[in-house]
């Protein structure tokens, strides 16, 4: 039986899409201010990963849907760019209030399709909200510069204008936060924004669309177009798209960057990660173990800033493995809607199989499986895509579990002798998203932060996602393009600078024109 769904996740028969109801919700696009089933004939199933049940039928867009969306975006972008900053700010402030007051509804939609526990989902909304609040600083961040009298009677000033139509292509692991890394900054700077959410957990994006509308945003400025490679390729090549923000895995990020830039678009493409936390012998090992286990197993390890490798230096190793192992065993895994659950399922059966396989390969290659979550079964949720927290010790750099982004609740411990060795391991890794050091030594921390080739660094902080007034971005294979996302880089990414040199001569000023190159 198929029922239709409104943006807040209610099916028409009044049941919620929490996977417990029998109905399968139709999940539509949001084009030019309304829910729109679109023209595309293809559908994709959406699951509740905790129960393994199909809960949604997602409409995948086609070329006709893309054309309709982009034409609406183009029309809206022209009007929106001319709308006064004070009117744009009023929409942003209302949107901020609406997201804050709908945190629980957004969190419920995230948990129903992603699986993370509700409190973690609410945390995701809160971090997205910080970027909305940063966008509320646009009167300051968009302010230009002015140089008076650079030459006699001549002033120079600069300001920034929107790119026009920009697209955001987002991953499954943060269905609200990552769209909010992009849309508020793109919109407040005067662009129209087209969101292509992950096919795996698409419903929260529709509630965001409804909240933008309720905040007074004109139709067409924020749209949601669902799809897979066909729509992504369309966005990357269509002449009406001026810029693309992408967040996802490294191979797709690289493809998106290459294809988009080849078609003349500005592109920022954030990729995958393998985040190392170094633990020195002088660290508070209980604090380090608490934070490592939270950073490795929170959201089942499906965070781009999850710590997946602990680099234990010297004497720290034995005690650290013992303490982290204890914490991993104590974690309650279950359906994210239950308040007792600390960790939910993985997103798909494929993800579960990948995690199990990589742990098996590490074991075969000589790593020690200290805590083994491969065969975990949750009572009453036998069909869910669960894997338990897993700790691997004595992992080496040539093992597949080290080389690949596992994207599951697995902490690999690599043992080294010195801080220099730890830095060498991190710098040899192709990813460079985040890293952390646990130590009591300011000097060691300073050496570390200056020498690692990683974009975001925590000192006794395991997941150093920058506050919204800074920008988020990794180095090396974790980011393709020149701009990090949100913060000042976000404002620059979504705008182009102009510099004006002006003279307003008096009628009887003597002409200074000359065939020589003008100098001041
Ligand atoms: P993904 O790369 O599979 O998908 C991301 C987006 O790309 C989705 O919207 C998807 O529809 C689209 N896509 C997938 N395959 C495509 C193809 N062949 N051609 C064109 N488009 C395609 O990533 P995911 O599995 O949804 O998300 C997890 C990944 O995202 C992890 O690697 C994680 O590290 C990364 N991530 C990175 C950051 C960061 O800030 N660097 C943040 C969140 C997630």
TrEMBL record:
Q: Name one Pfam family in it.
A: Aldedh
Q: Quick check: keyword Metal-binding in the entry? A: no
**Domain annotation Aldehyde dehydrogenase: ranges:** 42-499
Which Enzyme Commission number(s) are on file for it? 1.2.1.27
What are the alphabetically sorted keywords of the record? NAD, Oxidoreductase
Q: Which InterPro entries match?
A: Ald_DH/histidinol_DH, Ald_DH_C, Ald_DH_CS_CYS, Ald_DH_N, Aldehyde_DH_dom, MeMal-semiAld_DH
Region Disordered: start and end of each range?
1-21
Q: Which NCBIfam families does this entry report, sorted A to Z?
A: MMSDH (TIGR01722)
The protein here is known as methylmalonate-semialdehyde dehydrogenase (CoA acylating)
